[in-house]
Amino acid sequence: MNYVDVCAVLNENPRQVYTSSSTFNYCAEVTLPPASQAKAPTTLVLNVYGKTGDAFRGLQKGTRIYLHGSKLRFDVQSKTYSLHGGTVAQVTEAFPIFNDVILTGRCIKDIDQTDARAFKTTADGLMIANQTLSVHTGRNQADLFNFYAINTAEDKFNQAELLVNMTRKGTGLTIRAQIVTDAWTDKDTKERKTATKLKLVQMTLAPKSDESQTKQVTSQTTVASTDNVASLWGGKTAEDTTDPWNAGTNVGLPDLPGQYGNTPEFDAEPPF
What we know:
By secondary structure, the protein is mostly beta strands. The chain has one domain (2-208, 241-246): CATH 2.40.50.140. It is built from 2 helices and 13 strands; from the N terminus they run E-E-E-E-H-E-E-E-E-E-E-E-H-E-E. Strands 1, 2, 3, 4, 5, 6, 7, 8, 9, 10, 11, 12 and 13 form a 13-stranded mixed sheet that branches. A hairpin with a 5-residue loop joins strand 2 (15-18) and strand 3 (24-32).
């Protein structure tokens, strides 16, 4: 699973980008509001397809939008995130701020508790753990998403501790996370720098399979069939906002620049 609900502001008017000689999509740089007062805004590129793109192209720089059901991508070479597809709705400042990412995949490593880049505790009682999730994108490829969990000694639910104790290389995992960005000034160069990453909010481990306990599923109810289908919402139907990679063929997500396999090697920035 790869599912994103976020609010953003357009930094530019949407522009048309050709993906082949006959097909194109619309894209625009957008900024997500800070996830908290301690974080900075997140800037990335939004790509919109199909009928949603027809409506998206009419929006102007500075427009506030709500993006529902998009997909998050991570480019290993440039180490940048981008958003693809989904439904775009224009909203006002009064609209609630959403920043939700749901990813399902497999952990690619054991968390080394002796490596400060993967796990550490502080004198203040903070515990921080860093894990990487491989999420299938189709065509025998996957994106790698680095995410971190943090908790204090007083927290009743210790996400970081659970991440260390419960996840190993190959562990199936579904996470709910936020897109967050840290900003700081380099002490040597005085250059302003940023780092975007995923902060764990919730996680669910995949159930362990036990073939000996497998039971055949049988229907418990009988649904009456009828030719008379009631009209809902006055006969109105949802618009077709199907993304191109789900249009009848299981071809996965669009390729990002560069080619890489299921578990590419990269030096992901640690979250601390």
